[in-house]
Structures are given as structure tokens and as C-alpha cells.
Amino acid sequence: MEAKSETFAVKGTWVLVVEDGEPVLKRDHYVRIRGNTIEAVSPDAPSATETVIEHEQALILPGFVNLHSHCLNGALFRGIPDDAGFEEPWLARIIYQLLLPMAEITLQTLSPEEARSIVTLGMLDIMRGGTTTLVDQWNVRQEVYFDVAEELGIRAYGAPTIMSSSGVQIDDKGALNFEFKSNETALLDNVVAMHRRRDGSAGDRLRVMLGPHAPDTCSPELLRAIRETANRIGCPVTIHLSQTEEEVETVFQRHGMTPVEYLSSVGLLGRDLIAAHCVRVTDRDLGLMAEADISVANCVVSFARAGVNVPYSRTAGRGIRTGIGTDSHAMALIEEMRIAGFFSKLHEGSATAATAHELVRAATATGAAALRRNDLGRLAPGCKADLLVIDMARPHLQPVWDPVKNLIWKGSAADITEVIVDGKVVVKNGRSTLVDEKAVMRDASAAAAKVWRIAEQRGLLSRALCAGVRQV
Ligand SMILES: [Zn+2]
pTM of the predicted model, to two decimals? Predict the structure, then answer.
């Protein structure tokens, strides 16, 4: 049952708040919610008539801000790129020879309802993993993303991809050749029109961002126009930055600069920019990024599958605002944080690198700060009522010394019982309150199977290459 009253409370054995810049766990407190806002975090019990959500031992956290994702791809490619035997350059081949062509097949061959079902599955998975605010990048023809976000109740920033390149070929030596035929101005105009239509809709849960794809696929003229547009309409910008060695080489050949220097030279670096990945950045790049006060979306798992470490601590340790994203691998933030933590500890050779509390801050308040949202990522009066309830009364989470440490190092998405967004219980006892999950899984799996069949026919996809054992 969804909590129906205008006001309700969530009882926490532990409620994570921030006092004087430090995390503090309030014992036996209530988070009181009025409409879409947190009214109080208090030890006072609500009146007997008020609805209270409670569990035997509940940990209450701010909802997670997922700073970089592709929920269509997350569902469509589930299990395919993992262990895949592509030749080097592995990442570039996966991106340009598998992911982008398969996303294009989805757009060309599926009905709007079929495409919608895949987006719904991806977003459902993301929400059950604790994301309450999602930054997602997708093809400009997938505006259905906003309809799905409205239906599922998530807070969503959509960044339709803008690029100058209409295609990329990879030659026998692994070199990338870009075709520049796309009408980049028309793409930008489309997104500006979408901003007018959608930004602030669904009770201000939906926002539109500008999403230039990457330094190797965007011309200087396009990036300058995006900077000018972002300043004019006041929306955040997100870009993939320094993802692969091939991107670094391509940008150096064209402009004689690193990708970060290139973005700096066209004026794109700034407080409103969220750069995803930043795998191949130099020390000088890190200095430019810190100076320009940009934010980074660290997505460690997506690169780990290719054997590449992108330590969260590398950018966070330089004072660069670093949040967490799931990209298009698994969509659960707790697991993403855990792997980010272990990879940082390995990189730094230190147990104190990337602590559980630091990672939770990265996935909450830091993510909110990247979006310049003071009203998100915190459990405090006046903030939006976006929060998670975790039932700690489970064998793998007991006994409890520090519930946040138990959750990040031992827990999983399945431990999240309630997800509350904008004062509405959108996941209850681990299930969506707003859609029929079985129907979503059935429809999305059928739609994905259709795409996979076509991709196999076109030679993009094979079990031999993508490491699936024979099924008989
Ligand atoms: Zn991405």
C-alpha cells in the first residue's frame, strides 16, 4: 500500500544527516514528510492517526543521485559486452561497433511501445537500485524517456545526445575514422525546443540538459554553440570526456591538445559541466578541471569490464567534485559504490581511501551539488522528500556497528525496501507501486530479443564474440 496521506513519517533506527559538514547517524528519529518536502527530522513520534513507514531496524538515507547513465542501453545490452572477445581497441569497438549500432536498430525497427518497454525496464532497475535523481543520456529521438520517468515517479534529467559525427568506422589497424555529415545545428535546435516543452514538467521532476557526446565526435563550432546556449537557457551540460586512448589520439591529431584542453579552448569547461569518465586525463588536465570547477561522474564498473581502472579517488583526491554514475552496466548504486571503493583502495594502497561514508556523500550531496541542487541529496527540513529505507534486519547486515559501512561493503540493491521520490512512495517492499513489473519484464525482454535477432542477422552480434555459451 502506498502512503496516501498528505503528511506521513518514516521511522529510522538510524537516519543519516550532515551536521557541520560531517555525517551523523541520528538514532530512533522520524523523517516527517509534507507534500513533496521534508518537514522535520525529529525524535518526536507523530500522532497516532499519521501514517508511519517502519521496519524492525531501518536505515534512512537520502536518495541517490546517479550522475551518468543510459537506461535504454543498460537493459538492451544486459550481459552482452561482459567478457566479449572484441579485438583492441576493445572499448572503442564496443562503443562504435556494437552499442551505437544496436541503439540505432532499436530506433529504426521497434515500435514506440516496444522501445518504451526497454526504457521502462532500465529505469525500473535503476530506481530499485536506489536512484531517486537520474542523469541519463539518450538519442534525441527517445523523448519517451520523459514519459517513462513521469510514469515511474523518478526525478529525471534527460540529456539528448548532440554530435557532429554521423558515423564512425574502425579500420584494420584499429584507427577511428569519423564521418561528419550530421546537421549539428538542427540537433541542438531540437534539444532547445525539447527544453521549452519538457523542462520543469511533471511538478518540476523533469529537467532537460545539453548532452554533447564527446570531444572526438563534436566540432569546435558545435561546442561553442552549446556553451552559448547553456549560458542563455541556464541548463546543465554533460559530456563523455577522455574515455579512451583513441579519443585522446584523435583529438590530439585534430587540435594538438588533450580532450580536456580542447574543451577548455572552446569554453565548455565550467561549473555547470558534468564530465563522465575522465579515464585518460593528465595531471595538467586535472588542474584545468579543478580550476574550472567542473564535476566528474565516476563510473568504475563500466570500465572495469574492459580491464581499465578509473579510480574515484583520483579526481576526488584532487578536490574535483566527483559523483557516481552507473553508465550502462549494472544499474545499482550500492554495488557501484562498493566497486568504486575497492578500486580506489587498490589504487591508493590504503584502507582509508574512499570510505563508505565518503562514497555515500559522493552519491548523494555531491551529485546534487553537481546539478546545483541544494534541495536534493540531504535529509534536512526544506529539502525535497527523496529518500531510501533499508531494512538492516538481514543476516548479511547484522550485527550493526555502523549501518552505512555494513550496507556499502556487504549490502545490495535488494536490501532497499522503500524508495520515496518527491514525497511519494514509488517502491514499496522492493517493488514499484506504479507499474506492473512482470508485464514490464515480459514486454522488454520480447523487444530486446527482436533487436538481438536483427543484430545477429547483420553480423554485429554473435555468441562466439560475445561469450555466451551454447544454449540447447
Ligand atoms: Zn555514457
Answer: 0.96
